[in-house]
Amino acid sequence: METAVALREQPEIRELFEVLEGNGLKKERQEVESLVNYLEGMESQFGEVIKELKEVRGQLEQIQDRGIKATAARLLDSAEGKVQEIGTQIAFVKTNLVRSAKNAVQEFKEKGVEALKKAVSAMKIPTVLSALKESLHSGMESMERNAAKIGIVGGELNRAAQHTKNAGRALIGRRIKEPAEPKGDKGILAKVQKAFLSFSRSFAAMEKAADNAQKRMEQFCRGGDKKPSVKAELRQIKSGRSAGQKMQPAREQAR
Predict the structure, then answer these.
(1) Which residue has the higher pLDDT, 217 or 165?
(2) Percent helix / strand / coil, the chain, rounded to 5
């Protein structure tokens, strides 16, 4: 299996960078680089999400109750659909960026520097980042809703099981117990809920990274002298899950 070529190593992107640098078009280079950095940082994050989705699918097979299993499967199908939707959008942006880079270089060769500047402007990179942010925010909210729904199903199942046990204990005069830690189907549902919350944090981290990339690009275009840190951005994306653990959906708290 061949290793995929990094976006910045694509011949079209490398040539565009060289042409922009050679003609002193720093602002235009920064616009393109902001999107390239962001898309490259997304690769590993999305790989983790897809891996975890597969693990959750395997856990669902262990659920014994058919009704609960079907409900959880529908929610997971919804989550996978959202992930696929965003992944397809990112793949389209990458493909379009490579094509646009090739066209921009061709415009430069045929018509000069001004045509090159217009070609980069036509890529509408700030708009692209804004659209990606909206999709990721929608994905984050979708995962939170799924987590809340799974929490409700698991909570009801746990309470129902405990009520049945307590009824039996009451009949023989034994002390009623508080609900215990989830086990069996309930325990699996708790793991599924945790996974949905993890997906939500991942999307939130990717949304934040897109916002930061856009802000740094805008700062550069306004003449700011603070150089963007690519390494810092990648660190933020990779640490998004742990940093996002403080986020708790309102519905989960109300559960």
Answers:
(1) 217
(2) 80, 0, 20
